Amino acid sequence: MAGIGSGGNVHEAKGVRELRTMPITSSDPNSRRTPSTETNHAKDSPAEVPNSPPLPPTTPSSPTPPPPAAPIDVLPPIAPETALPAAYAKAQSIRDAHQAKHQSPKSKWTSPIPQMIHMVWLGGSSPVGSTECKRQWIEQNKDWEFIFWDQESADYLMKTHFPSLWPMFQRLPKIVMKSDWARYAVLGVMGGIYADVDACPLKPVSQWTTVPWDKAGLVVGAEIDTDRSDYRTFANRQFQVSSWTLLSAAGHPVWASVIHESARRVREMYDPATDQWWPNVTAEICDRSGPAVVTDVVLHYMGMHGDTSFKALHGMTKVKVFGDAVLLPLTSFAPHAHGQGARGKEDPEAYIGHGFWGSWKGQ
Fold it and tell me: What are the Cα distances from residue 348, in Å, to 81, 134, 241, 299, 335?
């Protein structure tokens, strides 16, 4: 899929993986071995040369200036891992077993969505109350595996599957931007359901009856659907896709495109000459790494299979299917949006209740 800013990614059957040629350095100690010397101290000393001129006097060396800051796109050396981080290892095992059971070389990422529920929290302790949504996901979905991604697991995921973006990932100015990239990478590489820590299920996934599971490689829900002219005061797009709950088969190409498009937008906020980010980075998060990027790339992907203009989507109350991509109406993931036509949390087609904690704004 020639997605926006996809950067020519290679999508393997076991997840999205970006290939990059790395300089090869030998790990063989013999390649750096110097000739052995005798233990005779006399032979360790320099040989005297007759009539040789005296050596010039030594002078104290001047202090070495500190190295300049590395540009955000310079690839640093990556130390070998001794063991896989827990979340990564668990997700990889489940994904591989799922693919072995359901996929064939011809099906690739069009296989069913694996039964994993992911949460991501980077940068310290998760907010008070986040355990409630986690508890509900686990209790309501006994046949799904719950996986919580921390900084270590997210770092390993990014540097392993998106090595050319690893330097930028490390230097992103806001933790929430790293969390955004991590959720997209988790879905692209492992597949499953992603949920924010304040996105609680209103009913078990088995009761999400409007989702055509046999056809779905990608499932998203509407967050905003408004014809107000002042929509920019409360949203980034007139029709906007929610990023607090996302579903995907492993290896779906849309997520590599989302990450690379986000990277393109993020680079615009960085000045390599001064090694400085824009002062108003927080105001740009939703547009450059959050729901606006997801909306633009996902609707572009869906647009290859149908009309995704605002006119075509505005006011939708039923599920729309675009190839393997499924778009749910407001009520499913944003039942609170009564003013835009959502029917409330008690509706049979309401699947997610979002808490709007806004905890990311302080990161």
Answer: 47, 22, 20, 26, 11
Contact partners, residue 198, CB within 8 Å, separation at least 6 = 127, 129, 130, 133, 244, 354, 355, 356, 357, 359
User: How many Å from the N-terminal Cα to the C-terminal Cα in the chain?
Assistant: 34
31 versus 277: which is more confidently predicted?
277
201 token code pair: 């299920």
Query: What Cα–Cα distance (Å) separates residue 183 from each residue in 51, 54, 167, 242, 248?
Result: 73, 67, 18, 13, 11
User: pLDDT per residue over 310-341, tens digit each?
Assistant: 999 999 999 999 999 999 999 999 999 999 99
CA angle, 317 as apex, 314 and 321 as ends, to 5°? Answer: 85
> Is 42 within a domain?
no
pLDDT over 80 (residue 128): no
Of 250, 267, 236, the C-alpha closest to 100 is 250
Per-residue pLDDT band for 228 (boundaries 50, 70, 90) equals very high
pTM: 0.78
In a domain, 240, yes or no: yes
Q: Catalogue the long-range contacts made by 343-350 (C-beta closer than 8 Å, 24 or more residues apart).
A: 345/202, 348/209, 349/209, 349/210, 350/202, 350/203
Where residue 15 falls (left for φ over 0; alpha for ψ -120 to 50; beta otherwise) is left
As beta bridge partners, residue 279 has: none
Is residue 39 situated within a structural domain?
no
Lowest model confidence (mean pLDDT) among 9-23, 234-248, 296-310: 9-23
Q: How many domains does the chain have?
A: 1
Percent of the chain with pLDDT over 90: 67
Rounded to an integer, what distance in angstroms lies between the CA atom of residue 300 and that of residue 323?
12
* CATH code, domain with 155: 3.90.550
Mean pLDDT of 159-170: 97
Q: Does residue 273 lie in a domain region?
A: yes
Distant-in-sequence, close-in-space partners of 288: CB < 8 Å, separation ≥ 6: 177, 262, 265, 266, 268, 269
Structural domain range at position 275: 85-102+113-356
